[in-house]
Task: structure prediction
Amino acid sequence: MSTLFDLPQHGSLQSAGNGSAGRSGPDPEALLNGLNPQQRDAVVHTGSPLLVVAGAGSGKTRVLTHRIAYLLAGGVHAGQIMAITFTNKAAAEMKERVVDLVGRRANAMWVSTFHSMCVRVLRREAKTLGLSSNFSIYDADDSRRLITMVARELDLDSKRYPARTLAVHISNLKNELLTPEDAAEQAGNDMERKVAQVYAAYQRRLVDSNAMDFDDLIMRTVQLLQGHPAVAEHYRRRFRHVLVDEYQDTNHAQYVLVRELVGTEATDTGVEPAELCVVGDADQSIYAFRGATIRNIEEFERDYPQARTILLEQNYRSTQTILSAANAVIRRNPNRRDKRLWSDAGDGEPIVGYVGDNEHDEAAFVAGEIDRLVDEGIATFNDIAVFYRTNNQSRVFEEVFIRLGLPYRVVGGVRFYERREVRDALAYLRVLDNPEDTVSLRRILNVPRRGIGDRAESVVAAHAEQERISFAAALRKAAAGEVPLPTRSRNAIAGFVALLDELQAVAAESDVAEVLEAVLERTGYRAELEASDDPQDATRVENLTELVTVAREFTETRAGAAPTTTDSGVDPSAESVVAAVLPAGADDEDAADLPADDSLSAFLERVSLVADADSLPESGDGVVTLMTLHTAKGLEFPVVFCTGWEDGVFPHLRALGEPAELAEERRLAYVGITRARQRLYVSRALMRSAWGQPMTNPASRFLTEIPEELMHWRRIEPERAAPQVRSTWGTRGGFDRTGADSAQAGLAARGMRSTGRKGWKDTVAIKLSAGDRVTHDKYGLGTVLSTEGEGPRATATIDFGSSGTVRLMLIGSVPITKL
DNA sequence: GATTTTCTACTTTTT
DNA sequence: GTAGAAAATC
Result:
């Protein structure tokens, strides 16, 4: 069914690749075949910095890979090229495609994620920075644990200063390249002062543990380059071409890193700035919440005054109908550079809309429609994807799909490497690899239970602090009886220390899989799970077995004479987890810098940096793909179902009052719409249970932003608005009342609900102020714009989004709940 | 120190 | 509805 979209673009890629992959290198001109004029410009541009603004489906990857191939064909050595992506998958794909175009010599390029690239540099330059090259890499969970410990030691109220919040703040500071001292200096309120305090202690503890978190990897590389001109010059001399993908997702630290790598002017020794090419689309920036700043792409021309900008607006993916919808939605975002995607693929099918009574009805519609499309031969299961805003929305679909026997696969959710058992097992390995890794050590201290409780742990921790020794050292002293502890605790600790020594001995002479096996056996971890009658524990055992397989594959691949490509020797049917962990392109000239002789370190680094192991199903599995909108970025499907388009669900509740967040949600809608090639469905539900309670949600404002003429409504909201509901909550019918009347109606509804929850009196009066978010039994979700008057005369003007802006009296019992 | 119970707070998440 | 943490109890 994809014939409609088999445009010349796709064919020519193949021919350029196959025709020119010979040893002598491809003919540069052949690489331009089948490119449109803008793409061609981007490929051949030389000299000044280049920004390629690549709309969805405009052939961004083609431009990048062809540009690299073109450079290579023009005499640039592969070793002079650095290409940076955000995911390992994107890196592997890019390398593979360049290899297809120019052959194996492309393997000498550095194509990696920001983080891998930094690890590589940091390990190599460890001496310069005075750190040990076998540092551990802490992920978000490790770093949150460490922050919890630090906050507890500082006696912070864990309610007022939750570890999560502290972690976010510290991460933001690092993304802005601010040190603990900077943070302390500019702290303006209580939270910021505490954050600065925690940050300082946390950073000290990281260093003590010989560890870096993800943000450190970037920040410390920047510090390295800025603080050591000779090092910076070395890399600048070496990498003459730097390419950055998904530039809209870079944060400030990454932006500075790129600038330092490339250089802005010639060095004293005459090294000119490298050539920079960044590719991205501000409209697809959906990671601001992780620190990405759209500013970097918007201000590129200011950052690099010589820059040339090329716009790619021709889309090779979707029908014009789909693109028109995407354009119409994204146009509502303020302050954006206007960009209009167009296609010559024709209008295609209208966008199908559906309004379900509830989420089950919505899911049933989606399932039924999928069934029909496949039945009628319009699509295969593979062609179809279902998107939702949050992971928990997948459940309804799974239920219906199972009931109807539709094959599906949920992408994302709890990832393999985030599972408790996997992390526990890896923590053991990490302690064996880096005994100073306090977070991992404390994680496994009493896992499985061995009689070392909180009490004993804090005594040891306090002792470590007092004596200014590491936790590991204090633990050994405790085992030797040099720390005041009950005998029982002391014995337990002694047993644990002996166990670690024993495992250490195994680690010294075995490969990773064997060490892992020894850990699972000798700690009794596996035995405990096997003895359990909790069905979840059976899955845990399976996951651990899977982890052993991953380790074994890893060792085998490394042992086999220098693998040449990412996919060599990998059973295509093997779990994606395995594939993701295998060493990628280990045959470049720098392989010697890597911890090649130490398979444990190498394995741990791999699993830390390749956490997106549950990667996407390869096509051909014959399943429908279910995923969040975020996960969908970068993918495409012939048929796409965008579900849950309700204010409060999508856009998410938390974004309703914040213009910046709302804009990001809208970009998410844009991403979702533009994933579809031929058919797009958009649906919502009138009622949906959230947090155990049924909620009525108004239509998503994004839904109303799609021009009516592009839509074909399969089912719309019934005339009488909200349907009769027998539950103890909700409105009774959609009568068009005045504010006062609706307050009366709400009284009844509210009363019934309230008795069940917090009692009647609570609901009689409500205090609101501008910015508050509320739900109204009739109007749904809204944001308070302003309040007027006091006491019984108080009123509030509330923006209910698509339900309009309403002024309500706040007397008696308005059917309003403050969120 | 372990186990059970209660409470609470809920995005998205490339590394 | 549920997972993770804190508090209460054994």
About this structure: Residues 158, 392, 689, 691-692 of chain A lie near DNA strand C (CB under 10 Å from a C1'). The longest strand of chain A covers residues 676-690. The radius of gyration of chain A is 29 Å.
